[in-house]
Amino acid sequence: MSDFVLTPAAQADVSRIIDFLEGDNPGAILKVVDALDEAMQLLAENPMIGHIRRDLAGDDVRFWSVFKYLIVYHPETKPLQVVRVLHGRRDLKALLTE
């Protein structure tokens, strides 16, 4: 059992990442998904290690990078709630205020 949960938006984000990699670099799918899973488990065990980005979101979420992706999560929740998993080159502020 994992100590984190993904919101529906985060689940959709991971699905989009997998879909993109299928067309661009199928060999990277397992590497990326495993790294994201390991990072989320690390964050569940150490939720305050992420970064606060007041320019992108309020103090209630933190950010952690994995390759080109940012895991956005609520550090105070049990289990840890992953809000979004976004590519760092996307318009993060717009996506996080949807």
Structure description:
With 98 residues, the protein is of the alpha+beta class. The protein has one domain: 2-Layer Sandwich (YaeB-like fold). The chain has three helices and four strands; from the N terminus they run E-H-H-E-E-E-H. It has a four-stranded mixed β-sheet. Strand 3 and strand 4 form a beta hairpin. It starts with a strand and ends with a helix. The mean pLDDT is 92.
Q: How many helices does DSSP assign?
A: 3
Q: Tell me the CATH topology.
A: YaeB-like fold
Q: How are the strands of the biggest sheet laid out side by side?
A: 1-4-3-2
The largest pleated sheet is described as: 4 strands, mixed
Distance linking N and C termini: 30 Å
Strand content: 15-25%
Tell me the overall shape: globular
What's the architecture in CATH terms?
2-Layer Sandwich
CATH class (first level) name = Alpha Beta
Mean pLDDT rating: 92
What is the helix content?
25-40%
Question: What value does the Rg take, in angstroms?
Answer: 13 Å
Question: SSE string, helix = H, strand = E?
Answer: EHHEEEH
Number of domains: 1
- The helix/strand class is alpha+beta
How many DSSP-defined strands?
Answer: 4
Say which CATH homologous superfamily is assigned.
RelE-like
Uncertain ranges = none
